[in-house]
Amino acid sequence: MSQDGFRAGEIDTSRPHPARIYDYLLGGKDHYEVDQQAGDRLAAVAPEVFIGVRANRDFLRRAVQHIVGGGVRQILDIGTGLPTSPNVHEIAHAVAPDVRVAYVDNDPIVKAHADALLGRTGETSVVLADLRDPRAIVDHPDVRRVIDFDEPVAVLLVAIFHFLTDAEQPAQVVATLRDALPAGSFLVLSHATGDFADRTEAQAVYRDATATMNLRSRAEVERLFAGFELVEPGVVQVPYWRPDTEPPTGSDTIGFYGGVARKTD
Ligand SMILES: C[S@@+](CC[C@H](N)C(=O)[O-])C[C@H]1O[C@@H](n2cnc3c(N)ncnc32)[C@H](O)[C@@H]1O
């Protein structure tokens, strides 16, 4: 048993995990055969998924550069995923070396890999916790060790909310996080959608996985930003959020919305 209370045996290699499917789609090495099979099934029914995950990652990079460039020095990255170069702290530190990052994920394998990469440093922490219990995240001692909730925080919820069902009350989850943040904080959120193609078959791939895929429309994704002020250009397909290079061919088909918003009071 680790200090966070999970057992190695909880790493389930018989069912696909979102973090490991995503790792496979990004070309990583930290996945099992079940995850690769799920990724291949996904690509067969939603061929844009490979450029989609890259575009999502690029959106994350641009959003972090934008917010850290604007002076924010703390990042709470919930649903961090398996380490992928460049990681959030690397993106942030390239802009400002004093940024502190708390990584949160509910998958023990993500924590194990992130711990191995980061060790225990003063500027980062890796926490095993679940977005469905946002209060536990905000109150977690290893989050509090690096994040001071009296100073602006960038909360990253990138490609995670679609793993929450409506019954898990996504709006309430964001509200709890928002209420813990001071003015000047940011929310970065991306979310899978079926607005650009029928993605029923892609959703079905996640039926056997450890989390379901809950696609949402643009209006539904915009509502998740309630209580924040969206920065330009608002909620758009991820390649079109402040691109710094030409968006890849096929960007119009990418089923990921993204947006960045600021808490003003
Ligand atoms: C698709 S990956 C996204 C990784 C990264 N945020 C990115 O966009 O590149 C989704 C991550 O969210 C995590 N996740 C899914 N549901 C979660 C939950 N309820 N609480 C915490 N983490 C969760 C998964 O384990 C996975 O690592």
UniProtKB/TrEMBL annotation:
InterPro entries: SAM-dependent_MTases_sf, SAM_dep_MeTrfase_SAV2177_type. Pfam families: Methyltransf_19. This is Methyltransferase. It comes from Streptomyces dioscori.
